[in-house]
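User: Once you have settled down, look closely at the record that follows, taking as long as you need, and be ready to discuss the fold:
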Amino acid sequence: MRRRAFATCSSRLQSPYPYHLVRVDSDPKAASVLFGLKFENTAPGPSTIIGWLKSSSETPAAATADGAEIRPAQFVENSKFWSHVEHVFREYAHEDPELQAQAAYQKSGWMNITDGRNPPPLGRTGEPEDIVGCVLVEDKCIKRGSFQPNPTHRLATIHGLFQLPRFLQAKLVDHLAIEH
């Protein structure tokens, strides 16, 4: 069974957010060439690169850069980047309007935060790879700093790149600009 590719290399990789490719390995002797994925308004750096795309003889670098299919198996996550995502969730999840609405509906308990790339049907739990983490809800409000990351969340799956709520996406881009 052939797995569906999750995106094409373009200025917008099948996502409402502007992910861009940046060449990060220019060694002509390398067996593979790495491209980094970053947000439009961030400078490429060790913690602002979302992850890397491996290029091989099957998928040459030029084809990858020109729009060939990118498969999740080609994607290598950047743990330094993910630590910034966790920080933003801990600091700002309680302020996010989308999450506040979900918390008001749930009323209390631990609430899963599902990645927007593959939302589950209403009232259902998302796939483990799509659950970013969870937050504690008390009296219809998200408790500040209660975010617990999900170690099985993946930044890239067959459904695409991760998609955060717009409010948290903006906070992440701002945070990365300050940190870099």
Summary: The chain has two domains: 7-78, 81-179. The first strand starts at residue 7 and ends at 8. The longest helix spans residues 79-92. The chain has four helices and twelve strands.
